Amino acid sequence: MAFVIWPPVQSFYMENDMAIIQRLVRHLCTICMIGATTAITTLVLLILTEILLRSVFDSSLLVTEEFAGYLVSGAIILALAPTFHDGAMIRLTLLSDCLSENHRKVLELCMTLIALFVVLFWARYILRAALKLFDRGVTSPGVFAFPLWIPEGVTLFGLVSLAVVIFAHGLNLIWPKASVNTNEGAIDYGD
Amino acid sequence: AQNVTWRVTSTYPSKSHVGASFNAMAEELSRLTDGGFVLQLNLDGSLGFKGADNFEIVADNVVEIAETGAVDLTGYEQIFGVVGLPFVAPSNDDVLRMMDIVTPEFAAAFEKHDQIMIGWGSFPAVGIFGKHEISSVDDFAGVKIRTYDSFSASAFSDVGASPVQLAWSDVVSSLSSGVIDAVLTSSFGGAAIKAWDLGITDFSEIGYSTPITLLHVSKEAFDDLSPEYQNALLKAGDVYTQTNWKESLAAIDGFKASFREHGIAIHDKPNDDLKARFTEISETAASEWIKAVGPTGAELFQAIKEK
Amino acid sequence: MEIEIAIVLLAIFIGALALGLWAFVTLFVIAILMMVLGGDFSLEKAGILAAKVSVRASRSWELSAIPLFLLMGEMLFRADLSKRLFEGLAPIFRHFPGGLLHVNVAGCTTFAAVSGSSAATTATIGRISVPELLGRGYDRRLVLGSLAGSGSFGLLIPPSIAMIVYGVIADVSIVRLFAAGLIPGLVLAMMYSSYIALRGRGTKLDSKPENLSALLGLIPILVLVFVVLGSIYGGIASPTEAASVGVAGACMLILIERRMSWELLRSSLVAATRLTCVMGAVVISASVMSAAAGMVGIPQALANWVVGMSLSATMLLIAIAVFYIFLGLFLDGISIMVVSLPLIMPIVIASGIDPIWFGVFLVLMIELGLMTPPVGFNLFIIQSISGATIGEIARATVPFFLIMLSAVVLFTIFPQIVLWLPEKIF
Ligand code: NA
Ligand code: NA
């Protein structure tokens, strides 16, 4: 079992490396959360503008439905990494609550590996789709021909960030010492 | 003989002329192959794909056959937009002639993206479902009308209406609460939302456009078929096209009868002023579209006009 | 798909969830396995499909109302407006057995008239009511259960996304369906309230001396409800757009109350975004799983089986109910409806069942699915709001699930409860 064997090897340097990774993860989460909240704010303003234009100026943006889609999608996907990092994702805990500390860690490590694999698999096919859209210069069929690789690229960024966070979560399980200082200098992006 | 099952995806309702046409196609295919070639129909958008999604999943052979609105595919190839140009084919005969002219071009566009076009379908022509008759330019003044693409938005703002963009799922409550006054849609769409329950009193047929759908299959999947099955598929595609046209025409009469029965007046005589404006609008829209497509577009549009 | 593979997949599904694999990952894994093991898909094709469906599902216009309603709820909560709402309601409700627990039911019933989605209803009302009710010492099980039960009114009381989908596929008037959902929604609300009153007898809560000035605390929220409802029924905004009117209204209220700060805006945005993500991740992977199930033909096979039994009208309804409740354990109800309706609808019509009545019946079936584990969106939402485990919430929901089921029986015996209003109006 990895974390039983490895801790003695843990060196000064390794701890330092781990600190760097954890800092990277925190920065990444902050960036993602800023992107996601910006998307939600823009969504509010977009829809309010549409209502105002329609009811006061007899006019319409004509792209509200399409862009609302990109924005809500962007918000969800970008928020995946920080939300996972906070441990807020839905999961059942009835079984792991009955396990001993060590067994729980092995189980958690397995689950983390599966999650990492799944997210990378997902990201790989988003990458494939994004590249195709970019190569062919595909745009939306709407009023404003919007290049579709842009929202697809945002999705890719969100998923890769999620993979990084999951990877770091796994490392944390193997070298738990590294997580001692996670709160020090943590960037607070909410409660 | 081979045993082949192909999946079909379409967002259009199984309970419509589209469903009937797919059933006819599946029967023909089964007849031609002694039951060896089966179609698994997934209509009503039940697989979770919409519009342009079909283009890629068929190109990648995830689903073998899809039926997709031509205008939804303009983001891939601008040429598909020709059938959505305003007033490009005002009558049913015009639509048939137009499809004869554009089919080779569309087939070539699909070929570029690893697909084969094996048929097409249509919906009854779009018209305006509103709260008063619309047959002159003045009738458009200040009407908040839900349109569905860039052509229709600019066409109706040209005649003084206020085009509004709304999700289709919001149309029902928006019509009954007065967020919008009118909706531009096929008589099929008007019947689907039961327009008479939403305060609609008039249906104005203005010959704006006939929605065209395209039946396309994966080239990879097609190449895997035996020549005999390939032929059967192409024949079944023709059956789709013919059934769709016939059933769509038959459906129009049914829709109109039910509009009249529920007190919706039908108008099909736009006055000369309005017709003249429509011709101008048609030319402007076409020239913009030609700019995006290039010389092929100009030739194609010319051919359709001279038919 | 062979029955053996189906059983193995079911075991993996339940096992993975029980071992604590994140729900969105589990759904994704099952979707891929279903296509690769149960269908003729290569891993690559399964990946392409998953990528396409996930992106499509995440870009839905109907989904966009959810973060905005959540944002509105967070802002009201952080500006203490929801606390003042409860302080205002306390003197009114303290005389009723069950006290403020009725706020869950009444709040969801009112909010359901604004929102077409059950998820938005559960999340918005829950965000406001759960902390208050738990803080005031109300019975946890009643708080969580009544929210899971009445949150699902979002689909039953008009407007309703599920009814729009049903109306289009079944070719039934959507406004008549909307009218048909209203009275059953109110009847169900009364049944829930009666149960709460029965269970909540003798609870001596909120016995603080009455302060009538607290009633003034009701005004801001009442104004907000009036503005949002007014924007929909006054023809200003569509139901989906009304969410942004709600956010703007909440901002105005908070500005008037002089409680607005960057910190309030920032923390509300972060909290709303996070909850949107928690739900969105499950919504997206659940649609991938629904698409996969449709691809390999599971719901179609089961629906065909139901159709093939040639049952009497009553037995048919029971079979359809079992079909929906079973598939509703794992799949999203609206997806099941879309896949199965083209098969089931003809036989329903042939059995002489009224299609409007059947629409309400189906919506109730979908709502039951929202309340059952392992995949029940109302349970997921309440978990993220309250921090309780899915098991605890599911147990708390059992009575409300049973009440809804008995309401279905009631509406079957007395179909006029459903059909009276649409017949009266048109
Ligand atoms: Na509702
Ligand atoms: Na469920």
From TrEMBL, chain A:
Major subcellular site? membrane
The record's Gene Ontology biological-process terms are: C4-dicarboxylate transport
State where the protein is found. Cell inner membrane
Name one molecular function that GO assigns to this entry.
transmembrane transporter activity
Q: Is Acyltransferase set as a keyword in this record?
A: no
**What keywords is this UniProt entry annotated with?**
Cell inner membrane, Cell membrane, Membrane, Transmembrane, Transmembrane helix, Transport
- Tripartite ATP-independent periplasmic transporters DctQ component domain ranges (all copies): 43-169
Provide the leader sequence positions. none
Record field: transmembrane: 24-47, 67-85, 106-126, 146-168
| Example of a GO cellular component annotation carried by this entry | plasma membrane
Q: Does the keyword Transport apply?
A: yes
Membrane topology classification: Multi-pass membrane protein
**InterPro entries given in the database record:** DctQ, TRAP_DctQ
Function statement: Part of the tripartite ATP-independent periplasmic (TRAP) transport system.
PANTHER family named in the record: 2,3-DIKETO-L-GULONATE TRAP TRANSPORTER SMALL PERMEASE PROTEIN YIAM, TRAP TRANSPORTER SMALL PERMEASE PROTEIN
Q: Describe the protein's quaternary organization and the partners it interacts with.
A: The complex comprises the extracytoplasmic solute receptor protein and the two transmembrane proteins.
Q: Which family does it belong to?
A: Belongs to the TRAP transporter small permease family.
Report what the protein is called: TRAP transporter small permease protein
Q: Which species is listed as the source?
A: Amphritea opalescens
TrEMBL record, chain C:
* Keyword terms of this UniProt record: Cell inner membrane, Cell membrane, Membrane, Transmembrane, Transmembrane helix, Transport
Record's GO cellular component terms: plasma membrane
Bilayer topology: Multi-pass membrane protein
Judging by the UniProt lineage, the source's domain of life is Bacteria
Give all residue intervals belonging to the TRAP C4-dicarboxylate transport system permease DctM subunit domain: 10-417
Ranges that cross the membrane? 6-39, 99-121, 142-168, 174-192, 212-233, 239-256, 277-299, 305-327, 334-353, 359-381, 393-421
Q: Which GO terms describe its molecular function?
A: transmembrane transporter activity
Q: Which InterPro entries match?
A: DctM (IPR010656), TRAP_DctM (IPR004681)
Q: Where in the cell is it found?
A: Cell inner membrane
Where is it predominantly found?
membrane
PANTHER family reported in the protein's UniProt record: C4-DICARBOXYLATE TRAP TRANSPORTER LARGE PERMEASE PROTEIN DCTM, SIALIC ACID TRAP TRANSPORTER PERMEASE PROTEIN SIAT-RELATED
Its assembly, as annotated, is: The complex comprises the extracytoplasmic solute receptor protein and the two transmembrane proteins.
Family of the protein in this entry: Belongs to the TRAP transporter large permease family.
Q: What's this chain's function?
A: Part of the tripartite ATP-independent periplasmic (TRAP) transport system.
Protein name listed in UniProt: TRAP transporter large permease protein
